[in-house]
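INFO  loader      accepted 1 record
INFO  loader      residues=80
INFO  predictor   begin
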Amino acid sequence: MPESLSFANDIRPMFTDMDVEHMKPFGIDLSDRADVEKNADAIYETVSYGSMPPRNSGEPRWTPEMCERFKTWREQGCPP
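INFO  predictor   done
INFO  writer      dumping tokens
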């Protein structure tokens, strides 16, 4: 059984300040658990396929471990 994850301790720290600011104009607040939960499928798809963050952003891509952590958090019901 995977460890119990939380947005505050495990998921929010994976989003950089640049990620948060970049997505606000698109109506997604990556610093808000409810917003991340609402967009979890799209977020997971973009980070797991390596299409976000963009290569020219200077931000590191998520590792497979980070993608798995996000997926597990979703499977656990997106706890706060």
